[in-house]
Every structure is written in structure tokens, then in C-alpha cells.
Amino acid sequence: MRTHWHRFSLFFLTVVLLVGLSALRPQAVTNERLAQGKLARDYIQAMELVRENYVQEVDYEMLTTAAISGMLRVLDPHSNFYDRKAFEEMRMEQRSQYFGIGASIQSRHRGVYIMETFKDTPAARAGLRYGDQIIKVDGESTETWNSDKVRDHLRGELGTEVKVTVLREGAPQPLTVTLERAAVDLPSISSHYLVKPGVGYIALSRGFHSTTSDELSTAINNLKEQGMNQLVLDLRGNPGGFLDQAIRVADKFLQRGQVVVSVRSREGKAGDRDWTAESGSPETFPLVVLIDDGSASASEIVAGAIQDHDRALIVGEPSFGKGLVQTIYPLSGGTGLTLTTARYLTPSGRLIQRDYSSGSIYEYHFRRSANGDVKQEDRTKSQMRRTSLGRPVYGGGGIEPDVKIEPGTISNEQAAIWTTGLFMFVRKLMAGEIAVAPQFKRFAIEFDHQPQSGEFLVNDDILKAYREFMNEFIAQNQYYGLTMKMVDDHLAWSRGKIREEVLLAAYGLDTQRRMTAEEDAQLQRALSEMNNSAQLADKARRMSKTSKK
Question: Dihedral through CA 240, CA 242, CA 247, CA 248, nearest 10?
Fold first, then answer.
């Protein structure tokens, strides 16, 4: 099941940071400016009428925030206003860190639960673990809170304390720990390892932040030391970020002088620019890039540049289609906004931004099909461009993969089972409360585990215990609408999902990914296309050398 909760906050491409209002050049007063002044007075008058006469008392700051947000929404889906808290969180994410306890949380069955704790963080050192239900924060009950509200209360100023009370499966009473908030790294690269001998895998999935390029270099060098001579670069789910980091990432794989991206601003404005690769020694090993509909902005710049220059094959699903560039403008009082100030083009001249003129913001971000995917047969000739080798590529709807393959999707029934009964079963399994599987009990997450293919296999006895648990769970929680027929229809899927959850609980997300790589259909197809990708890149290099003579 895919989650896209980051789309509103992270789907923008940043060009300039810390551009204040002082950077705006004064203009002569014109008739248009006078008209703007009249509108401003109308706004102030309307604001005062609402504040003084509305049926109940309203907050002035709330009205102002809503007014600015509404103004920006009229422009495009990516120009946004951020209040003080949201603006600071955005800035922290861009710095690849935040201040908190170091745990991933989610809303599951009737509460908010810890799904993973991160290495060397306050949560891990305190022994918090997968399945712990957060029932209080600083003594305040979380019974009516969602995961966002819990997260907001767990984060705070560096060095401050937060008291967390959790309900642990199998524990006789709630556990309360006092944690000191610390800087928690939020790296762009969530995982890197050898998926098989000689073939590296790098998941660049958490945005393009200030550390992204350096992280990638470190990961590549680490994998080279392990014998890597081929690479799968996974950009699935990557929502974008800094333009300069996208350029530096693409630079690692392109020949010097090759165009990475072109930025075009409003007519008459300075700022149009073409960025070219500058590395004198790019990586030349065979490469395949993975994308999906969560790959946006900076991710699409990297994928588009690599595709246009025939450096590698792109595998997966069509990308999101976000070709607008935002500049961050801090405002007074710690608020800020992101304003679309330019468009970007891939090296072949493609504008990959998809249409946003119809449909709601929600449809644009979360229901892509409702907003209208751009089918290849519907694209005009004007949107068609060619790669270095003459292959046709199209703009106007994201990056179309060279090899399209759908992911393993999760049905609504499976999602309902997973986030409720199955999750609660795994909690009991990891607490040692399932009699047929005492070996599954874990007291804390084990970091840096070297995975073994035969670990935590879900046998028939465990599956039988799962069915018995689900029968009782359904009887006690009928409001979910689950039935035993649903459970039996998805029993084979549940076997694999139970193991995935157990691996996450025992070893963390990175190890879970390593041990379930064979079940990732898109990754497996990327591996099978490696030779074809290498041949494509070799042909492009030979043609480039010939043209330079």
C-alpha cells in the first residue's frame, strides 16, 4: 500500500533559499498598482467585518493564513503558504534532520503505534519498539489523537524533555519513559546494499535534501568496496527537493558538458539557465533507474536527464509529472511561502508538468486518474522529443518509463486486514504470546543485522494460529466490516505480510527490504533489464565520441 502523505509538503523543487521580501525590487506606481491598493483596502475591510460581526469569535491569524493560502491555491498546486510550525518542519526536513525521539509512528487499530525506532536515538536507547501503543504524551491522553498530532507533540526544541507512556503487548502495566529530544537524521537514502553479487541497490526515496549528493557518493563507494559493478537507483516515492542536489546527482552519471536541466522563468525575468554536467569522471557502470507515480520534481529531473541522454533504462510506472520550480520566501513572524517562479525542461526540451487546470487539489495530488493521466496516444506531436539516440520521448505527463511494469498492489480488503487484525496478531507474535512460535519473541530491535533468507518463515502452524486470532478479532471488532471469507481469500498474501511485519519489528526497514527484495516485481524487472540498459548506454557513448571527432 502506498502512502502519499508527503505530497503537499514536499512536492516542490527549490531553487533559492532564504530569499526575503527585501529582495523584491520596487516598481513605479502605476494604474495597476493603484487598483491593487483598492483591492487591499477591500481585503482589510472584509477582514474587519468578519472579525467583528461573525456569529462567533474568530482568530485573526487563522483568517490571514486562510486568505494567503487561498490566493496561492488559485495559481497552481505547488505554491503554498506555511505557518510557523509547518515552515520550520519543512526547513528541518530539508536539512535532513529533525528534533525528536527517533521513531516512526502510524495510526493502526484504535490508536497510534510505534512501527520502528532508529539506531542511536532516544527512542531506541529507551527500549521503545514496534507495536508499542502511545497512550500518553507528557501525561495527556492520546485517545482521540491521530498520528500527526502525536508526532507534533513528540517533536520539539533540541534538548527538551518529553514523557511518553506506551502500552506494550504482554506487559502487565503501561510503561512511561522520559526522553530528551535529540537531532534525528533523516537521510535521503533509506537503504543501500548488494541485491545480488556485483549488483548494487540504492533507495533514494526521502527527497533531495542538502546532504543527498554526498550520501549518494558514500553509498556508491561503499558498494564498490563490496564488489559492485552494476547499480539499480530507486527513485520510487521520492517527492523532490533541492534543484542543485538533483543536478549533482545526475552529474555523477552523465558526461561532462551534457545538459542536465533547463530552467525557464517568466518572460522578461532574469534567471533562465541551462545546467550541464561538470564531472570529469562520471560513473560508467551499467545503471537502471526505478520510478513510480510518487517520483516527482527533482526525481524527474534526474530520471529525465538520464533517459534523454540514453545513459540508462527507466523502469516502473509513469512519474508524477511536476515540472514547476518554487522559490522559498520567508515572511515575517517565522512563516513562509513557496512560490512557483519557473518551469524546468529536460535536456531534450520536455516540459513534464501535467495539466492541473481541471480537478481539485486533492485529485491532483492523490487521485491521479481522476485528474487525467496523459496517455501516449493523446500526446500531441509538439510534446514529442527525441533522446540522444533518437528514441521518441514525451512531455506533458511526467516521465514515461522505457519499461513499464505495475507494482504489486494491495486491495482495500488487504489494507483493512493489514492495519487492524494482522497488525495486532504480529504484536502478539513478537511478544511471544503465540504458543506455536515462541522463537519469534523479540525484546528490542536488532540493528545492523545480516539477513538470512530462512529467517522468520511463517509456517502452517502460525497461519492456523493467525486464522484463529482473526476469527476472535472479527467477532470483537465488527465495525471494520471484516469477514473470515476475506481472511481466507487473502491467506497466502497474509503469510508474506506477516513475515514482512516481523522483519520490520525485529530488524528495521533496511533489513526488511533486503530480505523481501525477491517479492518486489519492479526491482526484479530492473535487474533483468541491466544488460539491455548497459548496451543502450554503450551505444550512446560511442555515438557521442564519434560526433566529437
Answer: -110
Give me the domains of the chain, ranges plus CATH numbers: 97-185 (2.30.42.10), 189-324+341-408 (3.90.226.10), 412-507 (no CATH)
* Position 15 pLDDT exceeds 60: no
Q: What pTM, to 2 d.p., does this model score? A: 0.86
pLDDT in tens, 322-362: 999 888 899 888 889 999 999 999 999 999 998 887 767 77
Q: Which residues pair with 290 in a beta bridge?
A: 234, 315
Mean pLDDT value of segment 387-399: 93
Active site residues: 297, 308, 322
**Which cell is 547 given?**
560526433
Q: How high does pLDDT run on average in the chain?
A: 88
3 state DSSP class of 281: coil
Residue 248 has which C-alpha cell?
A: 549533482
The DSSP line for 451-517 is --TTTT---HHHHHHHHHHHHHHHHH-GGG---HHHHHHTHHHHHHHHHHHHHHHHH-HHHHHHHTG
Write the CA distances from 146 to 111, 421, 504, integer angstroms: 8, 19, 22
Q: Is 315 helix (H, G, I), strand (E, B) or coil?
A: strand
| DSSP alpha helix (H) spans, 340-459 | 361-366, 368-371, 412-417, 423-430
